[in-house]
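> call design_seq(struct)
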């Protein structure tokens, strides 16, 4: 992923208003991110931990989405992140939903998926982070291929969000 400025990040969001994008809290240490190793930029809002943000490079330039974490009920079980394909035990994976951008003809609808609770998928994809207490599946892919797979999964979700919102 290429380096993005604060303005590029704020202008990338497709499922919130421009005002909301200007008010959202960016990740701390934005200037210290190792952009080349990132499959996408993902972070949890420090002021509202049930909100997360994802910004990815797509064929149409950087695109961002606002995510809402669904509170977990019942006993947490092992689950797999749908971005990085990392298996987590307990509360390491959460259900996130993203509102689709609205058109004049339809109301908002949303799309949900299971993701790493901390949105640290880029770190898991390149083995900088490992979930504790759970054995991962053996993969023959290179780290670069895993990073590409993660980036492609993020772009696929962004494209699915945009599908129904096209006029």
């Amino acid at each position: 992923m290429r380096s993005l400025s604060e303005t590029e990040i704020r202008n990338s969001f497709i499922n919130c208003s421009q005002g909301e994008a200007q008010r959202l809290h960016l990740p701390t240490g934005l200037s210290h991110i190792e952009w080349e190793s990132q499959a996408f930029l993902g972070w949890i809002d420090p002021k509202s931990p049930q909100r997360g943000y994802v910004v990815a490079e797509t064929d149409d330039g950087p695109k961002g989405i606002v995510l809402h974490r669904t509170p977990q009920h019942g006993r947490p079980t092992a689950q797999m992140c749908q971005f990085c394909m990392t298996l987590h035990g307990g509360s390491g994976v959460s259900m996130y939903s993203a509102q689709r951008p609205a058109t004049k003809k339809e109301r908002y609808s949303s799309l949900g998926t299971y993701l790493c609770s901390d949105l640290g998928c880029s770190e898991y994809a390149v083995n900088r982070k490992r979930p504790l207490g759970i054995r991962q599946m053996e993969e023959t892919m290179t780290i670069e291929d895993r990073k590409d797979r993660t980036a492609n999964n993020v772009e696929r979700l962004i494209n699915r969000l945009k599908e129904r919102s096209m006029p």
